[in-house]
Amino acid sequence: MSLVSLPFFIFICVLLILYYRMDSKHQWKILLLAGLFFHAWSNPYLIVFLLISIFAAWKLMLNPVKSHFVWVIVINLGILILFKYSVNLGVKDLAAPLGISYYTFMTIGYAHDCYDKKIEPQKNLFHYALFVSYFPQMTQGPIGVYQEMMPQFLNTHSFDPDNIKKGAYRILIGLFKKLVIAGRVAFYIDTVYSSPENFGGLTLITATFFYLIQLYADFSGYMDIVCGISQMLGISLKENFQRPYLAKSIPEYWRRWHISLNDWYRVHVYMPAVTAGWNRKLSKTMGKIFKKAKKGTLRLIYPTILVWTLTGIWHGAKFSYLAWGVYFAVIMLMSFCTQSYVKKINEKIHWNKDSIFVKIFQIIRTMIIVAVGELIFRSESFSDTMTIFKNIFTDTRISGSSIAAAMTPFGNGNQAAASMLIIAILIIMQAVVEISKERNEKAFTGHRYVYAALMMITIALFGVSGASNFMYQAF
Amino acid sequence: MKKIVITVITALAVICAAVIFKNVYSCEMPIKNRGIRDAINSGDLEVVFLGSSTFRANVDMPLMDEAYNGRVYDISYGGNELVATAIQYEEIKKRSPHDYGLFVFELGPMMLTQEVSLSDSRVIWDLSWGGKRKLWESMRSSGKTGLSVMYEYFVTSGMDDLITFPVTEPFYSTRYYKGAKTDETVSPGKDVLETEEFDISKEEFVKPQEDAVYDIIKACRSDGQDFIFVESPCYHRLQEDGKYKECRERYILLLEKEDVPYILADDVEFDTACADFFEDMNHMSAKGRKTYTKELIRVLKERKEK
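C-alpha cells for the assembled complex are given below, as produced in the milestone run.
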C-alpha cells in the first residue's frame, strides 16, 4: 500500500476513527492490528518473516545472554541477507518482506540494548510486536528506539484537533516534496543517467544537482508524511533530517542526514567497534607504523571503514553502493586525520570561521563532496561513473548552446524552459515552507494556511501522478 | 475549523479556475509564430502544412514565404499522430473564417503504428474544449487510458507552460516562424547517423490511425478543400527499412483506394544518403531543409499547374 494512494488515505481515515473511538487502554491494540494489516497488504505470505523476527527476538531476549543476542543477530541478518542478496547468492530474486531492513535494525537494536542492560526486556509479546510493526516507520524508518517509542505506544491518547491539524500540514509538506519536487526532477535525472554518454558536462552537473534535490525531497517527504500520520495518532517519531545541505562539513552532514540510521550505526556498530579488543590490537599495530599519529585517531580508522562499508552494502549488492560507502569512509577518515593540520593552517592564514563567506564556502564545499558521492551512488555501472566524470571534466563550456542542451532532457523546445522555471520556483517554495516549519513549530499561525493552500494547489496542478514509490523503500 | 475550511475552499477554487482556463480558454492564448490560433490569425493562406515535428523541421518557411507571397503556414506538434491531425483539421475549419488553398497532410508511414495519445502538450493548448474532448474520447476508445492518464490530460499537462507563459513565450516564439523551426541545426555527422540504433520491426498497425486517414479525406471532401499527402524524406537507413516500406505501402494503398493525391519522398529530388542533410533519422538539418523545400515547392507548383 503506497503512502500516496487512495487505499492508504482510506486506511488512515478508518484508523483514526477507530483509534480515537476506542477505549484509551486498548489504543495500542488498534495500532498493532493496523501494522500487521499494513504489512499483510503488500504480501500476506511474507508477514511470516516479520512474525518470526518478532517472536525470536522477544523470546530470546527474555533472557538476554550473549548466545541469545548472537542468535537474534543470526536469525535476523540471515533473513535479511536471504532476501536482499538472493540474486548474488545464486538464488532466484525474491520479493522482500515490506520494511525488512528497517525492522531488522530495530530488532537488533532492541536485542543489543537488552544485552547491554540499557533496557528491561519486554515481557508482553504483543507490546514488543507493536514496537517492531508500527506501520508509519516500517517501510523507510525512522528506525525507532525502544525506550523512546514503547512508553508512547502504551500511553493514552485523547483526540487533539491541534495534533490533527499539524499532522495534516506535515503530510501536505511531504506530499508536496514527493509528488511535486521529487516527481518532477526524476524525469530529468532518469533521462540523463540512463545514457550519460549522450550528455555534456553542464547537463550532467544539473542532473547530479537535481539528484541531490530528488533524494532529499523524496526521502524527507516520506518522513514528513509518516511523522504527520504519527502526530495525528499522538505519537512523535524521531526526526530524520535537519537541513542536511546546510552542513559545513561531511561529519556534520551525516549528523543531519538519515539521522536514525546513523545513530543506529553509531550506537550498535561504531562505538562497540571502537572499544573492541580487535580494534585496539589493530590500532596498536598501526601505531608502530605511523609513530606520529594520535592513538585516538588510529582507533577510529577500522570502525569508520567497517561502518561505511556496511552502510554501502546495506543499500544492495551493487558496485556503486560499495564504492559510495568506501568513498565516504575515505572522506570521513581524511576529515579526522587532517583536523589538527587544518586547524594550524587556519590559524596561520587567519581564517575567520564565523565569517559568512567562510560558512558559504564550507556549505558549497560539503555539497560538492556529497554530490560526488551521490553521483557514484546513482550511476548504473562503473563505466557510467567514469563517463560522467570524464564528460564533466572535459566538457565544461557554459554557452548558450550548452544551456539549451541542459534543458533538453525535459523535452524538446517549449516545455523545457517552462519545466526548469517551475522547478526553480517550487524549490524556493520548498525552502520557504521548511524554514517556516522549523522556525515556528508550536504555533499554527495565518501564514501556515497560506502555505497549505499553495501546497494543495501545486500538488494538484504540478504533482506527478503515478510517482507512488519512494526511493528508499527499495533499500 | 473555519480557517481550514476557507483554506481548502480557496485552494479548490484556484485549482478549478486553472483547470477550466487550461481546458476552455487556452486556445485563445496569444501564442506567436506557431499553433492553430496564430495560423488562423494569418488570414487566407495558400498552403497549410499539418503534421508532426517532421514537417516542423523539414519545411523551410522563408523559402515557402517567398514562393507563396507569405501565404503559408506550418502547424505541427511533436509526435503528432493521425487521429489528432484529423481533429486539428476539423478545429481549424470550424474556427477559421478564412480560405485555404491547399492542405498538406503528412504521409508519415510510421504514424500508422502510433498509439492514440497526447504526444505534445501543445496539442492540449491549441484545441478548443470540444476538440480536447474528442481527442480524449479517441484515446479512451483505444483503451489505453486510466484515471492517472485522464488527470494528466485534463489537469497537469501543459500547466507549466500556462503558469510560465509570460516568461517563456517571448523566448520560444523567436525559435519558430509560421510554425516552422528557425534553428540553424547541423548534422551530427555520417558516423553518428550510420550507427544510430533504431528498431521499428515490432511496430504494429493501429486501427484508429487508419480510420483517421479516412476521416481526414472525408472531412476535406465534404468541405471542398483541396488537399494532398506528402511524405517527407528520411535518412536512407530508415527510408530503406523493411518495416518502414511495409507501412508506406499500406499508407499508399489507403490513399489510392480513395483516389487521393500524394507526393512520395522519391518524387522530390533529394539525396537521402547525404548525412549533411539530416539531424537524425527523420529530421533534417538546416541545410537539408533548404534543399528539400526548394524541390518540394517546385513539385507542388508543377502539380498546381497541371
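Chain A touches chain B through 25 residues (CB under 8 Å). Chain A has a mean pLDDT of 85. Further analysis is deferred to the final report.
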